[in-house]
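PROTEIN DESIGN WORKSHEET
SECTION A - STRUCTURE
LENGTH: 308
TOKENS:
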């Protein structure tokens, strides 16, 4: 599944909020951990770290070495990287060169030394990464960064498309590795059909009934399939705009982790997971694992996921 995890850090408690998730996944998945710190290259005439080629690694800081000792004390294989250059570029280049297959990072944070904001950096990384990205929103004030994640349930948003369903394979494997249950959800909103007008002869209530029944049957089939492997699985039809309703159910589900494709479209619901994923990442207090569409496959990949 995930064999090598990259956790970018900038020395701030907010950025470090992603570390417990990296440690947990590395432990449960038997994966290697790579801690990265990007150093900005000083412009001509400015004081700062000695300039170097992009991707050239420097000496690890005592800060990173301390975190490495913590990881090693837990029996984890942990390496360090200090790379000069812009943070997003350093993260993407390091993930590629070190063959990391997951990036786990906070959605915002700032250090006094590197002065880079993880909100914009995370946005750049999640759009350009060739591997899945786990985005963690730090607690207010950066508190609780050293506490282990209290994950209980994986929320999987679906829209009837094979792209969205491909996230279910990853969710199932994570659920087994982490001992979590699954909650499969689909959002329905009859208002998207309001443009049809009264001439179609279908009332708002009738449209809502059809959408809800169709979504319920669809989720029940997927839930029954996933339950065959022994996983606890629930399904829930949500009402309202997808991004809002997914963020809301994640917020109302303690210990939730959202796993979703970056986009997908079904002929019935007609909502794109690209914009939905961005809204969930922005609004949800729960961590969100984003799988880019180019990384997902057809529903056949779900069968391959169960076989391993």
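SECTION B - SEQUENCE
RESIDUE ASSIGNMENT:
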């Amino acid at each position: 599944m995930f064999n090598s995890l990259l956790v970018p850090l900038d020395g701030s408690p907010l950025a470090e909020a992603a570390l417990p998730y990296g440690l947990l996944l590395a432990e449960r998945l038997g994966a290697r951990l790579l801690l990265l710190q990007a150093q900005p290259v000083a412009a001509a005439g400015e004081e700062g770290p000695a300039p170097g080629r992009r991707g050239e690694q420097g000496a690890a800081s005592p800060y990173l070495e301390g975190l490495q000792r913590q990881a090693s004390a837990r029996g984890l294989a942990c390496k360090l990287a200090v790379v000069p250059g812009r943070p997003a570029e350093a993260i993407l280049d390091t993930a590629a060169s070190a063959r990391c297959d997951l990036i786990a990072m906070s959605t915002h944070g700032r250090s006094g030394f590197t002065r880079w904001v993880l909100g914009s950096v995370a946005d750049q990384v999640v759009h350009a990464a060739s591997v899945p990205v786990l985005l963690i929103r730090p607690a207010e004030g950066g508190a609780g960064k050293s506490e282990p994640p209290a994950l209980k349930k994986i929320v999987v948003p679906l829209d009837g498309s094979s792209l969205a369903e491909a996230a279910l394979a990853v969710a199932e494997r994570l659920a087994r590795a982490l001992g979590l249950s699954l909650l499969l959800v689909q959002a329905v909103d009859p208002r998207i059909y309001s443009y049809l007008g009264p001439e179609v002869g279908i009332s708002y209530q009738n449209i809502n009934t059809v959408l809800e029944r169709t979504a319920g049957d669809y989720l029940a089939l997927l839930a029954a399939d996933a339950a065959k492997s022994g996983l606890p699985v629930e399904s829930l039809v949500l009402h309202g705009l997808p991004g809002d309703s997914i963020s809301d159910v994640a917020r109302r589900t303690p210990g939730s982790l959202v796993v979703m494709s970056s986009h997908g479209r079904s002929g019935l619901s007609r909502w794109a997971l690209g914009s939905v994923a961005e809204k969930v990442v922005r609004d949800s207090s729960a961590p969100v694992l984003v799988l880019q569409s180019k990384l997902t496959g057809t529903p056949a990949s779900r069968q391959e996921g169960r076989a391993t």
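SECTION C - NOTES
Confidence is low (pLDDT under 50) at residues 48-56, 109-118, 264-273, 295-308.
The radius of gyration is 21 Å.
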